[in-house]
Amino acid sequence: MTPNGALFPAADPGQVCRVLAAKGTMGLPKPRLCRSAGVALALLAALASCGAPHSRAPQRGRAVHARPRPPPAPSAAERQQCLAGLTAASATFQPLPDQYFGAGCSTVNTVRLLSVNSDTAMLGLSNLGPVACPLANTFAAWARYGVDRAARQILGSPLVRIETMGSYSCRNVAGTDRMSAHALAQAIDVSAFVLADGRRISVLGNWSAGTDDERAFLRTVHQSACKRFGTVLGPDYNTAHRNHLHLEYTGGRFCR
Ligand SMILES: [Zn+2]
């Protein structure tokens, strides 16, 4: 904690972003991959002034697992603190502009998360779209403390990559008329884990049919996710989740 009470130190606005693209297109600069919350905040503030509508007010009297509510629009300070958390975790990310797609679908305060860090290495991520910033922070901590350490302890090899089936998707929960947390970029579907020794442990292939260690690893990372995320659904929940772990920031500690 910093002297002024913030969880994370304020980023230096002059901190250099990683520039992956050398040239712009049609006179427009290509996006920079930022580790600087200061730069990110300036970008977001500029975009927020472009007339994006406010999110809908939360509805009263809904059950915990009813239709996900669009989160209250975060303040500039909250956005900065969240991005600073990703910077402190040495994640590689790109802040994204707020977008509203209709039908209740939106991406507010999201990032494109390209990598997170374990204790010793950069962990690759695949197939991720926009991810709500608080979800990205929780995911980064789970990957480091919940997944990589379990991989080393149970399987004897560090983690190098997490494969996903995506994050943002404007849709309902499968088989229902309730809007999915994916419609707000508040959930990530994780399908497999790749280890440094080349093994690939997938939810579909190893949850039931894996070795004892592989099955123990998947159940351990599932349980550690339940301690961090609001809602976690896996193969034991229903067949729709036979091939992935649904990790949702929202919800009231629903773990299946
Ligand atoms: Zn999901």
Structure explained in plain terms:
The N terminus is likely disordered. The chain contains 5 helices and 12 strands. The strands form 2 sheets. Strands 1, 4, 5, 6, 7, 8, 9, 10, 11 and 12 form a 10-stranded mixed sheet that branches. The chain is α+β, with helices and mostly antiparallel strands. It has a domain of 164 residues: Muramoyl-pentapeptide Carboxypeptidase, domain 2. Bound molecules: zinc ion. Zinc ion (ZN) binds next to strand 8.
Task: Describe, in short, the structure shown.
This protein has 256 residues and is an alpha+beta fold. The protein has 5 helices and 12 strands.
Protein traits:
256 residues, alpha+beta, Muramoyl-pentapeptide Carboxypeptidase, domain 2, 27% helix, disordered N terminus, binds zinc ion
DSSP helix fraction = 25-40%
Q: What is the C-level CATH assignment of the domain at 92-255?
A: Alpha Beta
Which fold name fills CATH's third level, the topology of the domain at 92-255? Muramoyl-pentapeptide Carboxypeptidase, domain 2
On the 0-100 scale, what is the average pLDDT?
79
The ligands bound in this entry are: zinc ion
Largest sheet: 10 strands, mixed
Number of helices: 5
Which stretches are poorly predicted, pLDDT < 50 over at least 5 residues?
A: 1-65
What structural class is derived from the secondary structure elements?
A: alpha+beta
How many strands in all? 12
Strand residue percentage: 15-25%
Distance, first to last CA = 34 Å
The CATH architecture of the domain at 92-255: 2-Layer Sandwich
Radius of gyration: 18 Å
Shape: globular
List the helices and strands in order.
Answer: HHEEEEEEHEEEHHEEE
